Amino acid sequence: MCEGLGCGGSKPGMNELRESLIQAVDLHNLSDDVKVDFTGCHGFCQKGPIVVIEPEGTFYTHVKPKDANAIIKQHFIKSEPVKRLLYKDAETGKYIQNYDEVPFYKNQQRIILRNCGHINPEKIEDYISEGGYKALQKSLCDYEPLEVIEEIKKSGLRGRGGAGFSTGMKWSFCRQSPGEPKYIICNADEGDPGAFMDRSILEADPHSVIEGMIIAAYAMGATKGYIYVRAEYPVAVRRFRIATEDARINRFLGENILDTNFSFDIEIYEGAGAFVCGEETALIASIMGKRGNPVPRPPYPTTTGVWGKPTSINNVKTFATVPVIINRGAEWYSSIGTEDSKGTAIFALTGKITNSGLIEVQFGTTLREIIFDIGGGVPNGYEFKGVQTGGPSGGCLPASLLDLPVDYKNMAQSGSILGSGGMIVLDNNDCMVKLANYFLNFIQEESCGKCVPCRVGVKAMYDILQRIIDGQGEMEDLDLLEELADTVKLASLCGLGQTAPNPVLTTIKYFRDEYISHIVDKSCPAKECQALIKFAIDEGLCTGCTICFQSCPTHAIIGRKGERHTIDPLRCTQCGICEASCPSKAIIKLDRCEMEKVVLV
Amino acid sequence: MPTIKIDGIDFDSPPGWTVLEVARFLGLDIPTLCHYDGLEPWGACRLCLVEVFDANGSKLVSSCTHPVSEGLDIKTATKRVIKTRNMVLELLISECPSSKVLQDMASKLGLNRVRIAPKWKDCILCGLCVRVCEEQMMAGAIQFGNRGQHLEVSPPFDIKSDLCRQCGACMQICPVITLRCDGADAATVLCNGCYNETQPSCADEFDSYDCWMGLKGECGTCYQVIETKKEE
């Protein structure tokens, strides 16, 4: 049974489900044969709460506490699955019983998420029984530290935090830098809107991260590790803390690990909610108790990091990959993926997509496969318009790039970044100007404010976009916008500012006509920008029910019960409440061209 | 000693120097705002940008923080640098057009338009006062508060700090405390009173403003050469 946050691990309802399952098991006297246990996130959050019957892998979706009895009775006593709770394929209409045959999982290759959803994250025995801590034993007993680094280098693993720097290179820089003690940091300060892979791993498989960290520490000769995790992730913090304590008891952490002379321990550091603290130099400042301001590199943290000592900072996903590489070998790992991007990548699919959730695919998979085969495409019959990858630092890719194989190189060439792996799918109701504006707003709020291009430049860009959205844009604004974007990209101090213009640059590159129609025609093709649309009532569909009349906050709707309503354009503020409230979908949005037609009629 | 190349000059730099220190030693002029001798480099104003070339291409770095290393190849005034630097200054002036330091710099760098709506703020958040208070006066009475658009310099909790000895170092160091010649309520965003009309120089032809005479096109010789070339 899934107790990830998406399925309601933090809500009281989930414990209710667990209790009702246990009660049902007791009721049918099956407690010797059936064990109810919880796991971390399965990734398929759209279908949650999820219950999986192991070992055969029957996959139940949308399970409510009242279904517990039916599952136990029908599945275990009658030995037939509860059909109504099985996954139903949207295309064929067939019910699919087995976990591995659900298209969402069938097309994935889960390496980093190997244990997520299969083990109890709060029990170290579960992790060990899945082959956990074998890689640690192997590295400590069979490998010299330098051999571990060689192995990681050979595997071609690149940092999963977004920049994609070679992990092996980073480790060897840190090892070679003079200065003792050395530190390693696990960066779990995940703040992108719509990204939740680090949280899911920490909640579902914290031991894999711990094991990766210990191996890294051994390779670099570090004695102390920090994990910098957002305080907004209480479940992740709690489970990680339990995991470190269990690891200490089992002598995987602390003095003389596994009776060798290697000692290492991990301290959990909870971040205070600043997005910029995901940037490595700001993160280091934050750990040292200073204001989370980035500092220019060089010197890089691998030479001068926490407390001025060599420090290696890696992402949660990077550490979670390390044990697999050690266990199965660099050659096996480097056989997966593309020429310059080895292994797999995790994406958090959100937005206008049928199957939202967490997925893992190998590099080189095309966007089409990710969005349509695994994600199930855009729901409600709308048209796919674009996908925003990499969160606020990434770019927005149009439908024409759907067949682009996803890897570091291709993403950079298209103007986006792989980033931490957020993927927000957009349909034709999403306005690209508004999207760029949204991300810039996020950056201007979350920028530390230290350097001028990021603090003033992003704000200037935001103001220009706001003008365009309000219908007051001019064509010169577009040139200034591009010039500002270039300046912010080139001149900003840290990665936050350097990547902040990406949403603007890519939307201008791929959706320039949309900007032009905002500026020249004063029209929003997606009908999202409030200043550029008008609401109207389709007289043929209106039944005169007065629901919109009652819900309108500005009393802009005129009409009596049973009569067709009209909207007073002078009072209407385009808030859209009436549109949402209308039961017969009679309220329509008009863009500028349509407005003119209506006036002409 | 690391050997570096700066604007085509080979130089054996003492280890631990920054690019800015080398440039100043050689008499190459790089504009700075948040840099102050005696304070730790801060790298926030981004006016001292220079272009660093390596095998993978080039990137812009702040010269006040960039340490010299063996084989470093730097140009202090390429087209890209000038364009970006002027845009950064344009952003700064739009924040605080009443500052004499910024207006003088605009005239010197040849900035003659500001396309961003002026905000007429009093502080450009360069951090000099915060740093001088902490590093030289050993007081730490003022600090940055909030972030992003809400960033401000203030004593803790916005109340008068017991640590402040009213030494006035923060006022002395503040670059925007001196008002421009036409006062705080000037009608225009840019003064350009000292603006030099002969700004266009070698940049258009040689992709570098670097004048071997240590000038930036003020004498106009290169400009004339280019003109003659065009006529030919």
Brief summary:
Chain A is an alpha/beta fold.
Essential attributes:
heterodimer, A: 601 residues, alpha/beta, Glutaredoxin, Rossmann fold, Ubiquitin-like (UB roll), 5 domains, 5-stranded mixed sheet, 24 helices, 17 strands, globular, B: 232 residues, alpha+beta, Alpha-Beta Plaits, 4 domains, two-stranded antiparallel ribbon, 7 helices, 7 strands
Would you give an account of this structure?
- The complex is a heterodimer of chains A (601) and B (232).
- Chain A is α/β, with parallel strands linked by helices and 601 residues long.
- Helix content of chain A is 39%, strand content 13%.
- Chain A contains 24 helices and 17 strands.
- In chain A, strand 15 and strand 16 (566-567) form a beta hairpin.
- Chain A is globular and about 85 Å long.
- The termini of chain A are far apart.
- In chain A, 53% of the residues are buried.
- Chain B is an alpha+beta fold and 232 residues long.
- Chain B has four domains: 1-77, Ubiquitin-like (UB roll); 79-122 and 180-195, no CATH class; 127-174, Alpha-Beta Plaits, CATH 3.30.70; 197-232, no CATH class.
- Chain B has seven helices and seven strands, in the order E-E-H-E-E-E-H-H-H-E-E-H-H-H.
- Chain B has helices spanning 19-25, 79-95, 100-109, 128-136, 169-173, 203-206, 221-231; strands at 3-6, 9-12, 49-54, 57-62, 73-75, 143-145, 152-154.
- Chain B has a five-stranded mixed beta sheet, with helices on both faces.
- In chain B, helix 2 runs antiparallel to helix 3 (100-109).
- The longest helix of chain B has 17 residues, at 79-95.
- The termini of chain B are far apart.
- The mean pLDDT of chain B is 87.
- At the A-B interface, helix 16, helix 17 and helix 18 of A face strand 4 and helix 2 of B.
